[in-house]
Every structure is written in C-alpha cells, then in structure tokens.
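[SOLVED] Need 3D model of a two-part complex

Original post:
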Amino acid sequence: MPPTAENLELLQGTLDVLILKTLSWGPRHGYAVARWLLDTSDDVLRVEEGALYPALHRLEDRGLIESEWGLSENNRRAKYYQLTRAGRQQLRTKASTWSRYAAAVTKVLAADAG
Amino acid sequence: MPRLPGVRRLFRLARDRRDVGAEVDEELAFHVDMLVHDLIASGRTPDEARREACERFGDVEAVRQRCFDISTHREARVRRIELFATLGHDLKYAARSLRRAPGFTTVVLLTLALGIGATTAMFSVVRGVLLRPLPYPQADRVVRITPGGPGKDHGTLSAIELNDWSRDLTTLSAVGGYRQWETGSVYGDAPEPIYVKTAHVSAGFFPALGTRAALGRTFLPSDTAQGANHVAVVSHGFWQQQLGGDPQVLGRTIRLSDESYTVLGVMPAGFDFPTPEAAVWLPTSLLGEDDVGAGRVARWMDVVARAKPGVTPAQVRADVETLERRLAESYPESNAGWTSADVQEVRDTIVGPVRRGLLVLLGAVGLVLLVVCVNVANLMLVRGTARERELSLRAAIGAGRTRIMRLLLTESLLLAIAGGMLGVLVAWWAVHALVALSGHYLPRAADIRLDGTVLAFAVAVSLLTGALFGLWPALRASASTSSAVGLREDARGSVGSGGANRARALLVSTEVALAVMLVVSAGLMVRSFERLTSADPGFRPENVLLLRFNFPDPPPDAPPSFRTERRERVVDRVAQVPGVVAVGATKFAPLTGHGETVTFTVPGQPPKPGEEPQVTLLPATPGYFKAMGIPLLAGQDIDASSGDSASGPVAVVSRQMAERIWPGQPAVGQTFTFLGITTRVIGVAGDVRNARLDSLGGLDAYVPDRMMPRSAMSLVVRTKGDPAQMANAVRAAIREVNPGQAFAEVVPFTKKLSEAASTQRFFTVLVAIFGALALVLAAVGLYGVVSYTVRQREREMAVRLALGAPPSRVMALMLRQGMMPVVIGLAIGLVAAVASTRVLRSLLYEVSASDPATYVAVLVLLGAVALVASWVPARGAAMVPPARVLRE
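Solution:
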C-alpha cells in the first residue's frame, strides 16, 4: 500500500517504539495495539498487519515484551503482550531519542530561508 | 545476550511443548476476526467486511511464516536456556549435598577412581597390544605363512622354494623370506663393541610388509644380486644411536662383524619386523652354503607375505598347499610330507600368545568394575534411605517423581564424572606401572598409551558406571517418596522399608558372588605361579653367571681344530679366574634358545614312516653339567677326550630320552644315529627345562662341543660369591683369548629364570590385584550395610537388651542378618567361579581350574572377611547401653 497523506508508512524502527509505548499502559493483544495506534494518531498511523505481527514477535524474541494467552473483551482466546523491564527501559531511551529527532526535523522544516 | 525466560514462565505450570505454528495461526485469525467484526459494526455487509479485512491484511502466508520463524527460534533458545538453568541448578545442588557428606563422597570417589582407572588402564593395554593395527599399510593383508606337514615342525622354507612361491602363488602380491639371528652381528670396536640384531631378508620382504624407507630406499632386486649385495637397510633406532642421526647416511659404509656394508636406507621409527630389536636388514643373497646349507633340503627362511586385496587367509592357505603338494611330487627327496601350511595375520602371530591372557585380564577388570558399581549402588541406596525424609519433604512441596530422580541421577553422574577424572589419573599411573611390570616380554608394549580412544572409553565407562550405580537407587528412592510413607516412617524412627533392605541384601549377595569369582581366579593364578617358579628347572641357577656371545669366525686358513682349541682355551682361562668354581659352555643355555632338533634312529627299533623320533642336540664342554648344576644320573660326564678320534661320537642323554627310547634297560652303552652319525651313550643326565619353564625337557642329547662347534656360545660360570660381581673379571679373561670380544648378554642366571616367568608373573600379579580389590570392596560394602542396619535397628536392639535379652543373642541376630546375603553370594559365586575359571585353564600350570583346595581356601577366606566385616558393627549394637539409646 503506497503511503498517503492519511496513513504514513512507518519508518523503520519507529513501529517498535510505538508498540512499546502502546503496551506501556498494560497488556494488549495485537489487534488492540493496531486499533489504539490508529485512534491515538487520529487515523494517521495505520499499521500494516504485515508489519505489526512480525514486529511483535521480534520484540518478544529480543526480550522487550512477553506474551501470554488470555481472554479478550468478547470472550475469545487472544494473545496478550506486555512490557518487560527491559522493554520499559528501551521505551524510555527510544522515546527521548525520537522526541529530539522529531523536534530537530520540525525545526529544520519550519526554518525560514536565510 | 539471551535473556532468561520471564519469571512468569518459571511459575507457569509445566505443559506440553508449545505448538508455535498453531499459536501464530490462532493469533492472526483472532486479528482478522476482530477486524471483520469492527467493519461490520461500521456498516459493511459480512462479505464486504471479510473481503476488505483480507485485503488490508495482505499476504497472510508471508506474515505467518515470518512470525513462525521468529517464534520457533525463540522457543528453541528458551528451552536451551531452561535446560541449562535446571542442569546447572541440579549440579549445584548435587555438589552441595555431596559436600555435606564428605565420608560418603570420599569412599565413593576412591572406589570409582580405582575401578575406572584399572579398567581404563587394562583397556589401553588391550587396545595397544591386540587392537591397534600394526604400522604397515593395510596391515590386515600381511600374513605369516608357516609350511608344515605330518611330523614337521620346522616351518621354514628353502631359498629355492621361496622362488617357486613368489612365481606361482596367485593369491599373494609379494612374498618375502627372512632369517633373524639369535645374537646378531658385532658393531663397533674395542673397548666395548656391541651386538646388533641383524635379519637377512629376501627382495620380497619389504614389499610384503609395504613399508617404505623413511630415508633412501629398501632393497631392489638389483641390490640382492650376488656381488652387489654388501648393502644394508638400518632401523631408525640404529641410525639415531649408532650413526648419530646423520642426514648424509645414505651411501655411508658400516662394518658389521668385520664386513662392510653400504647403507641404502633408513626405516621409519616403529618399523620393527621381525622383532623389536631388529637393527639392520641385509640381503639373503649374502648367506652362503656354509651359513644355511644348500638345495631344497636347507629350510631356513621364515615367510611373510602380502595377500592380494580381498583374499582371505584361508584362500592363501589353499593356494600354498596346492603348490606344496605339487612340489612334494616333483621333489620327493626334499619335499615329501611338506604338504600343509598355516596362514595367520601377522598381528596374530605376534600377540597370539598373550591374547587369551589379556582378554582374561580385561574380563577380570570388568568384574572389578561391576563390584565397584554394586558397591557404590549399595552406598547410594543406604544414603538414599537415610535421605528418605529429605526427599519426602521435597515430594510433599511439589517436586515430581522425575524431578527427584533427575536430582539423584545428577548426583550419580557428578560422582561418576569426578570419579572418572580421578580414574584417568589412576590409569595414567597404572599404564606406566603395567608396562614396567610386563618388561619387554609383553609384545607391542611400546604401543600402549592413553590416547583419544582410551580417553573416550574412560568417559563412556564413567557414564555407564554412573547410570549403573545411580539408576536403581534413584528409581527406588523416587518410588518410595510417596510423601506420607517417608515422613511417617522416619518420624516413627523404625527400620528402613522392607524393600530397601531386600535391595541391599541383593547387592551384597551380588558383590560377594563377584568377589568369589575374582578371588578364586586370583588364587588359581597365584598357586599356578607358585608351582611354576618353585618347580625344579633341572639345574641350579644360584651363583651362576651366564655370558652369551658369538665366537669369532676362524681365519680362512685355520685348521679344522681351530675352533675347538680356541673354545677350550676360553673355558680354561675363565676357570683360572679367582672365585670361579666351575665353567662350561654350550650353544644355548637353558631358556635362552632352541637347540638343534634332528630325527634319529635306534638299532632294532625301525621307525614307523613319518614318526621318526626327534632329538634336540646341545653341544657341551667338559664341566658344563657341573657348572650348570645338572645332575649326572648314570654313566660318565663328557671329558676332554670325549668325541675325539679315539672315543668316536658319544653323547649324554636326558633321563626322558633314556627311559623312553630304552625302557627297562640301561641307556649307557646303547647307540643312536642322527645325520648318519652313530653315537654311543656314555651317560644319563637329569631332565632340564631347556626350552620353556613350563615344560620339562623332552628327548635331549648333549654331545661333546668338538662334535658341533657352533659360533653361538653360552658360557656358564659357577662362582663362589655373587655372580654379578664376577662379570668384569670373566669378561676380561675371555678377551685375553679373544681380543675385542663383544657380549650379547652377561647376566646372573637367577635373573634369566625370573625373566622366563615374566609373562606368567604379569598375569598373576594383575589377577591377584583384581582379586584383592574385589575382596576389599566386598568387605567395605558389607561393613557399610551391616553398620547401617545396626544403626537403623538400634532402638529395637536397645529395647531387647532392656527387656533382658543377652547381648550375645542380640549380636547373633545382627550377625545372622548380615551373613544371610553373604552365604547366598558365596553359593552363587561358587557356581559362577566353576563355570568361569575354565577360561583360565590354558594359563594355569599344574593346577586344575577346579582345584578344590583353592575353592575351599577362598570360601573360608571370604567367609571370614565377611564375618569380621559384619561382626564389628554387630558387636557395636550389642554393646550400646540401652538406656542411652532409649533416652535419645
């Protein structure tokens, strides 16, 4: 799917930090993660499922999140992810790096010529 | 860095292996369903919703595969970490609990180290001697061929027939003939020339063995042609020690026994055919009629050959025998009767004589290892019972049966591995001791070492041992930890469970039975060895010095009497040395070589064809019988005039010859004829173990030295004092007559006698050690079990004592309980020993494998040891003041 104004394709690495942030409020299953990102970004950040699930598994493999099967709001078995200690720490570092990066980009883009 | 699985995971209840694929599928399906659900909620029809969801999801299969890969990888890693974590935990726990029982651990480790060490050492001997291939390319194709026939035991080949063989045999790719000389050739000059072992070899010798020279080359057909044949190939050892390892050695001239040879090549280290001492190889074409005789009658070559690929020894044998039968028809005067052949892989001819002995030793050490296992299992069982409470507690707080078993097995394996490491140290030391003990009489002793294979064997044995002694106690302990039983029983302070007692009794019986087998074997071997060494050799070796050397060849123009006169002068000169009581000479003194065996006829006793009697001829100087201490039973001794032209050919015969050839009549005055020489018997001497210590001589005849003046000489010197002290004086005296004389051997005869028994000594010492080990282990095991039972029943005994039972009664009770399994073990061991010691039969000398005295002695000994081992702790039980026990 080509990037449009409405759903920007997420930059490499950005998805990871967004997932970690999403999980910082507690365990969620994959669908809830995607849903929350879409809602919170006012429908701008639409996460492709093709990227979301591998990202979740990769984060689990790196020990940043862990998973457990539980019951969803509509009483179905769903796999819930939650942050580990390492994940929480990773989120802190990555979030601050990202904020500085975004601020810098914004500043450059907003600068007047001369 | 791999992270340990989350805490959550550790507490999660154990469940079956995760099915990663199913989990990924379920997770993705959930997502799609949720999406569809939401889309329907926002107004799509179900069909539209599903289509859109699938569209948004994209390539499900690709996503699934990526997730699956990541998770599978992670799952495997987590499992690995978990495994190591538990293993590490188990090991730590096992080490801690073993440290808390230092007595138990020490005894077990020592026992294991001895058992594994002895087994590993024995295995390295068997591997080095019996299993390791000889250092020839395709060594299994190298065979020794011994021609034979009815009544023929020379087993050698004439040079002419060797040519027939190499031309006509189709199963062989190379045939070599060789002859190694007993003493060898003199190398070097005064003051101390030495003998080096030389072998004369035919052109096919090196191709048959297949070994190339390390430097230069071996013989080509052109090297062995008459006139061009003063050439030599030398051994690596000779090159290093005598030629200084000279890299320019090729083409150098060496002098051996006053002849010059050009060095053509140096063999690689380890090439030691036909014997380990072989130093120089010379062409057979150097040997003339004077040396080996002429024609087809002159059989003097041993044969080594290389079979063609895929040809079995049996096929070679058939091939050889076909040819031999043809030759026997063509040349009946020389070849009649030589129609069979023995074909053996060359390794078997070298190690054959010790194979059975070594295998018996390996079997014996295996039994020792089994005793060790049983003993350790017993100790583990006792310890397991003592720990029943601890294990029950563990079971009560949720440790599963497999978990407890794993804990106990880890402990066993830890012990086995530690014991194995100590065992390798023991083996390292033991291998050196074994090689030293075997002297150079064990063939291929140089090939014995601890190498990778032996270490792998040690590891395997350790693990197997650990499993053997650990598994049963672990199974028992984990089975008896149904928590309630364990906790209750211990709280009541009563006897260990009946099952555990039976198990211990069974182990004791096994141990005793194994010990009986080993101690009986040891007893038989020791008795046999004692008989062998105390048997009368037929001569008195004390205070006798033996000197072996080759008499120098007479000068070309010397009269025929030259040799005899020279030899008489040597004997006379040595007799004048102060301290010398008697001197005599022969070709081969007892136990130093084989005499010359010829067929003979006796007047009035026509032989059956093919059954002509054979006599072994030995030259003897006057005084030989006196010097050697061989008794003269009848007639007269050989004296200075015996065998001269006046007396004619005469001989002193052995008692066996006298009794077998002229039964019931005096042998003195009779005649017999060999090689056309009619010889008069002038005396009868006692039988002598000339050839082997374990066989009393056969038909031997001593003829005056002048009748067969051979260059090989054994001079025996009887001295007043220590013969070793006389060596230098005697040597100097001989050199006065023969300047620059070299000596192959100068040794007190008692040492020679002891060397002759060295192989038997080797086997006997080892079997005795194994027997002693088994005995000690069985005693330790029994002591441990009885004292444990006593401790378990202390309270009961105290009650009995308090109620007035006499201490002797209490003791008898404990003794009976301890001795019951011993008696069963003795009975089983007896039967097993009768069955198994049959393998010893060929190793025993004048002792029957079912020698009743040995069996009785062993049963009494083992019974006594067992009685003491159970009496000591049992007495303890009866001596305990009951009040104290009951108060506790």
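Edit: Confidence is low (pLDDT under 50) at residues 1-8 of chain A.
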